[in-house]
Write a structure and sequence with these properties.
This protein has 420 residues and is an alpha+beta fold. It is built from 19 helices and 9 strands. The protein folds into 2 domains: 247 residues, Orthogonal Bundle (Hypothetical protein af1432), CATH 1.10.3210; 140 residues, Up-down Bundle (Growth Hormone, Chain: A).
């Protein structure tokens, strides 16, 4: 691809990892591409900045950081007499660099709101395939690594595994920007202890305590940051705002929105309907709109919607832009339908809205998480005698059965101005 830069061996100064080098012209050109530059305008942590004001870092920073850690990991594994060619190294760096390119506005907050049933990994893969055509097939090996189709499976594990470079960066970065010290991990130590056995990524026994701390930190970060009750309330407010806007557009209302946002508000199609992986004619249309959509489109629309004559839309938009969030309750069991109905009746009287609209103001849902999945590829510990053991068996300090248990919590949201 044509590029105005002749010197493509740049250095990026990252506040988390320090100086990060760009190791090839292909990687420089991918970073310079508008699809990737868009990640500068996608917040890494969605609405988390409403709780932790410093959490305004972007997906762009995270992707660059993950690429840096991948380069470190490959260097470590090579030093232990495992062959990784220059082509394989570049492909692995490309795979981790582009792993989040399919994220929509506010990252996970609107994961299924822009395109119903869409997961960002699917869109990332599709955009990588689209870029591969633009780059004359130079991304083919990276796509094989990303999808786990390449013969060296440990390279895929570095991109998407229980100790992948994605997690290594986001835990360290998110801890740094939120100031939540419980999330600090020894990523450098874990990477130094990485090895390969029987084509599987393993950790040498000396690194077991760092892995234990990593698993605990991940659990703490989920409940203290990613699933903080105020973050959940804010992200559900945003979801309800988009849901109301979509309904109004489908009812024929003319709403202010960028052309890219309006495209998705008009459509109810899901990933399968768009035919992204079948070569359908709508594929180019959806990607052209998606890669131009970012946080700014949502924020500019919400500011205008706060003055819209539709009461539901204007109230939700005003709350969103003014940080007036739902009250939220958590419990281990589902909330009774009677409690929800009573609160909705309260909302109808309080805001002078219809019964059908009360669901935008009072609703329930659930969230779930685990720190270590015993069902996925396990974290293997390599001992000096060559034997391997699952971290759950090798750890003498942690009860991994607790960390691997899926914790599910139910939540109920309703306006703070209402009685509970």
């Amino acid at each position: 691809m044509a590029n105005y830069h002749t010197n493509k061996r740049k250095i990026i100064n990252d506040p988390v990892h320090g100086f990060i080098g760009i190791s090839s012209e292909l990687i420089f050109d991918l970073i310079s591409h508008s699809c990737f530059q868009r990640l500068r305008r996608i917040r890494q942590l969605g609405m988390t900045h409403l709780v932790y004001p410093g959490a305004v870092h972007s997906r762009f920073q995270h992707a660059i950081g993950a690429m840096h850690l991948m380069e470190m990991a490959i260097g470590v594994i090579r030093s232990k007499n495992h062959e990784i060619t220059k082509k394989e190294e570049e492909a692995a760096l490309v795979a981790i660099l582009l792993h989040d390119i399919g994220h929509g506005p506010f990252s996970h907050a609107l994961e299924a709101s822009i395109i119903p049933e869409m997961h960002h990994e699917e869109m990332s893969l599709y955009l990588m395939q689209k870029l591969n055509r633009q780059f004359s097939g130079e991304l083919s090996l990276a796509i094989d690594i990303f999808t786990g189709c390449y013969s060296k499976k440990f390279l895929h594990q570095l991109v998407a595994g229980q100790l992948d470079m994605d997690r290594m960066d986001y835990l360290k970065r998110d801890s740094f920007y939120t100031g939540v010290t419980e999330g600090v991990i020894g990523s450098d130590r874990i990477i130094k202890m990485l090895n390969v056995s029987d084509d599987q990524l393993v950790v040498e026994a000396k690194g077991i305590y760092s892995v234990e701390k990593f698993l605990v930190a991940r659990r703490l970060m989920y409940w203290q940051v990613y699933f903080h009750k105020t973050v959940v309330a804010a992200e559900n407010l945003l979801t309800m705002l988009l849901k109301r806007a979509r309904q109004l557009v489908h009812n024929g209302e003319k709403l202010f929105a960028s052309p890219y946002l309006h495209f998705f508000l008009e459509s109810n199609a899901n990933m399968a309907d768009y035919g992204l992986f079948t070569g359908s004619d709508s594929s180019d249309e959806i990607t052209e709109n998606f890669v131009r959509l970012d946080d700014d489109d949502i924020m500019s629309a919400a500011k205008v919607w706060s003055g819209h004559p539709d009461k539901c839309l204007s109230i939700l938009a005003g709350w969103f832009t003014g940080r007036i969030l739902f009250r939220i309750e958590f419990r281990n069991e589902p909330f009774s339908q009677k409690r929800i109905e009573d609160l909705r009746k309260n909302a109808i009287g309080k805001f002078d809205i219809s019964a059908s609209d009360a669901g935008y103001f009072v609703f329930s849902g659930n969230i779930s998480n685990y720190a270590y999945s015993a069902e996925d590829e396990k974290i293997k510990i390599l001992f000096n005698n060559g034997e391997l053991a699952d971290i759950a068996d090798a750890s003498d300090m942690l009860n991994l059965s607790v960390l691997s248990k899926t914790v599910k919590k139910y939540f109920l949201c309703y306006p703070k101005t209402m009685n509970s």
